[in-house]
Amino acid sequence: MIDSLSCPSSKLRTFCGLLVYMSVSVSGHIRYSISEELERGAFVGNIARDLGLDVAELSSRNFRLVSQHKDKYLDVNMKTGALVVNDKIDREQLCHQTLECLLKLEAVVENPLKVYSIMIEISDVNDNSPAFDREEFRLDILEMTTPGSRFRLQNAHDPDAGTNSVRAYQLSHNAHFILNGGVAEEQISMPDLVLERPLDREQQTTHRLTLMAIDGGTPQRTGTTQIIISVIDVNDNMPVFEQDIYQVTIAEDAPEGVLLLNVKAVDADEGRNGDVKYYFSENVPESTIKRFRVDSEDGELRLIGRLDFEETQNYYIPIEAKDNGFSALSAYCKVIMKVIDVNDNAPDIVIVSTFSPIREHAPLATAVILFKVTDADSADNGEVSCQIADNLPFKLDRSVNNYFTVVTTRDIDRETITDYNITITCMDAGFPRLYTSKTIQVQISDINDNAPRFTQTEFTFYVEENNVKGASIGVVSAFDPDYSHNGRVTFHILDDLVNELPVLHIVSINSRSGEIYAQQSFDYEQIKKFQIHVQVNDAGFPPLSSNGTVNIIVTDQNDNVPVILSPLSNTGSAVEETISKLADSGYLLAKVIATDADSGQNAQVVYQLLQPTDDSLFTVAPETGEIWTIRRFLQKDSPRQIIKVLVRDNGIPSLSTTVNIKVTVQDGMIENTSKISQMSISWPWKSDVKLYLIISFGTTSLILLLAIVILGVKVQKRGTDISSCCWSISYYSKRNALYGSQKASANLQMRPNYKEGHENYEPAHAFSHDVHPDTDLNDFLFLRLHGTTSPMIHLKAGSCINEESSKGSSNATTEFQEMQVRIKSRCASFIEKRYFLKAAPTRPLTSSTVWRSVLGTRMFLFLPNFKQCLEG
Q1: Quick one: which of 600, 470, 563, 459 has its CA closest to 522?
Q2: I need a labelling partner for 430 at 20 to 30 A (CA). Which of 371, 497, 622, 727 fits?
């Protein structure tokens, strides 16, 4: 398709450089032609229409121009699709004097991705006048110079190209000189001044001429310089070069100082007039002088600077040969130097678009990066190839004009890798090969594809009872590998019932931090542990969640005072107990039973005797609460005893309660049991106590009968000595010691003034008293057997004496009293030596200690008369 744009004749000078023609090839190439120096906003063409694009889609498809130049000369109006001038274009600056000046652009659109090649031809405008390097040019010409001799003049420079550059020279009218200039190598050659008629120095020594340079533009532009000719009368032969044009090729990486060529000129004159010197012509560009040097003596042309093929590919060097005569004559030659390219430029990677971040789990072949690669070297060295690492989920697709696209090759998971550093490496085809690398970071955007998870499968928290309402119980924690709001978690408690109450009435949770708070004060005695279910949700769309279990265990506090279960009084006053004055030491008076609603150490109770009437008379077992007599009652003891028992727990701080027991000491027979009626008030009996008593009496009687039969058999065999008649004292001491204070309770504590003597003795038949909460009768009541008659020991005769026979005479009474004294002494000595010295050798023994120990045992329960004898 070819469009043309014509301008009215009145505006020809202003718009003659506008659009001349535009063509669109089937391969996607578009070519426009505009003139230089157009104003900003000047219309170039409707690129949207020419490319077949919808103007409304230009922005959504991210339409843009890509140029290799730093300056943005052209732009696209996204509303109209028009290609307009964005900045003034100076053709001379952009393309110098190249005949064809092209500005190469690429148009890029996305969705789908397409690249179009756009060529903008910049036509020249005659905006520069020809100019000479000097305002004045001087020549010395011998008067003997023959007509037809040529004198090289300086040429004019015009930055314009083509027909707008210098096309002709014109010399002012004179009688001796004409101007001769021809076309050489597609350029206007330097003008030559030709002598048409011989000079006569005597007639005119100086000639002043005006040289005018005219370009081919419309309108024409000119430039002038003055030629001052001095006529001298000497040297009449000019140097002559061997060649008018020298051609040289050199690689751009040639080292400094290398010899390029040697120019040679010959002068037919002799002497100084034939001595030739070599120089650069006066119109040589400064860039040439910086890179080359000609030796004035021998004409050697050497390289003194660095060459760059990408900057200048050809050099035109004019050299002048001048003799040394009085009126020096010169000859000129031209050196055409062609620079050969070497691979000294690495490829240049230009990132056109980066589609970052890309969505995780994006479809395969999703475009990630669009870039173009350029190489300033020649076509052979500038062919490029690119690659990226193989271990990345991306690959390279090559497009037209060295465009490359990085696309995805497999599924991308942001939770595995959050971003990728894609290193692009491009290599050219030169030798040695050069490469360039550029790393582009591509972020991966997150989608909500992971449910939050608790850090533990189950949480367990402990909270002490009697806590403050609103106190923190613990913190549950969860994590979500997703990013931003997809990974932001919140907590809430699932609806449930705990002890028939809604769970939210019992605990609450901070939705952000996961901290759980108590909504009420817990009581360990009512609830010891409970379980709640917590759900964690993320903030993604759609939201994902998971559940966790939280076990809350209430720990005990010592907040309950021990409660006395037994003995209790109906009126709440002190408990009444009675005891016979004849009760032996180790007699179980009563048992205090207490309970504590706490648990563990807080529920373990200890019994302690406080403020007794006589602290040497009673003791209490600290673990069982059994109250025992330490010794027998004496005449001086008060018939009314008050026992105050302290019951405390092992908590911190310890809590306690007390019970007062009023003990009435009665004369008469020994009571072997506590009042069962009082115990029954505080404990529910499930069966008849009488049945247990009958069984106990029957069992005891049977054992006693067997003991008598065995004893009779032994007596029958051994005869009637004192050991068989009266039983061995040591035997009864060992055996009956089990019924003393030592077996009263495993935890029996004696008062400080009571000396315990039995430590290491192990009885043949152990006796234990256990308290079981599930039994009907918690207290085992002791029964004591009493013999109807007890033998008395006659120490002197070594025989047994019955109580009846001892009452027969007064002499017997006197002997009996003496025997009592001796028995006391001997028994005390025997017991002291046999037991106390072994058990406590370090403890001092007193008479009071010995007798209390004797009374604390039940070794004489079956010998009441003997006991009375000892008690004296």
Answers
A1: 470
A2: 371
Strands of the sheet containing 367-374, edge to edge, are: 348-354, 367-374, 403-408, 394-398
pTM listed for this prediction: 0.44
Domain count, the chain: 6
Tokens (6 digits) for 489: 């978690």
DSSP assignment letter at 783: -
pLDDT in tens, 722-764: 333 333 333 333 333 333 333 333 333 334 433 333 333 333 3
| CA-wise closest residue to 242 among 187, 319, 338, 151 | 319
Structure tokens at 653: 């701080």
Under a CB-based contact definition with an 8 Å cutoff, are residues 486 and 446 in contact? yes
pLDDT score, position 262: 94
Residues 800 and 720: their CA atoms lie apart, in Å, by 10
- The residues facing 373 across adjacent strands are 349
Query: Considering 540, 555, 570, which residue would you say is the last residue of a domain?
Result: 555
Question: What average pLDDT does the segment 72-83 reach?
Answer: 88
Per-residue pLDDT band for 452 (boundaries 50, 70, 90) equals very high
Give CA–CA dist 706/700, Å, rounded. Answer: 10
Do the Cβ atoms of 354 and 367 come closer than 8 Å?
Answer: no
Q: What is the mean predicted confidence (pLDDT) over 175-192?
A: 67
Whose tokens are 């952009």? That residue is 94
Give the span between the Cα atoms of 441 and 151, in whole angstroms: 68
Bridge partner list, 618: 629
Which secondary-structure segment (H or E) carries 733? helix 729-736
Look up residue 852 and give its two tokens.
């209390």
Q: How far apart are CA 844 and CA 629, in angstroms?
A: 23
Residue 309 pLDDT class (50, 70, 90 cuts) = confident
SS3 291: helix
The continuous run of DSSP H or E covering 855 comes out as: helix 847-856
User: Does one domain contain both 329 and 360?
Assistant: no
Q: Look up the domain containing 309 and give its range.
A: 240-340
Q: Does one domain contain both 862 and 756?
A: yes
Please tell me whether residues 459 and 524 are part of one structural domain.
yes
CA atoms of 815 and 230, how far apart (whole Å): 191
